[in-house]
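Next comes the chain:
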Amino acid sequence: NKIKPDVVVHTAAMTNVDLCEIERDNAYKINVEVTKNVADACKKIKSKIVYISTDFVFDGKKGNYKEEDKTNPINYYSLTKLEGEKVIINSNLDYLITRVAMLYGYNSENDKNTFVKWVINNLKEGKEINVINDQFGCPTLIDDIANALITLIKNNNWGVYHVVGPEKVSIYEWALKINKIFGFNGKINPVDTSFLNQKAKRPLISDLNTQKIKSLRIRMNNVEEGLKFLKTNYYKNL
């Protein structure tokens, strides 16, 4: 009410997939009810809304999902994020829903432990790690998402967009690239999803089709480019 922004980018979410499975009430409150509250506030000040969603709204059976493909959540986190999408679509606001995936990047030393940070920290300490080799997706540099959002908002591109890196890799392949680009020679063991005994099911092939943003000349870094950017700008002293 005080600021009356033209656009609100709603990034808050409960994103711990296994915790959402256990604390369902919390997950619903944060991912659905809070989203409705933000949308209602946007209506009052007549602002547009941007909602950050996820590749996990798909079941992961086929991959290369387009924006209009049928959603089918297979865990509670995904279900709440899809419900959040529905809240936004039914809000009668100008909206932008961006589905993102496998995020990595750097804000500060206090960042939460992204996969890239976890791999770097373990390899730096000479630890052997087990990494899943049967889940595939599109690692995405957060700087690219920020730039894509600015472009989409400035150009009034509303609707649903897949905003992810252009390359489909397994989590294991991603770890191998981190190992190489950051100059480690660590021991990384490929394991199946079942090895981790996770509480929530994961979609196995959840790469997203990015033709829609490519047609708007929005460029996203592939895995190697993104990791090199990270190393050059933030991890020079490793």
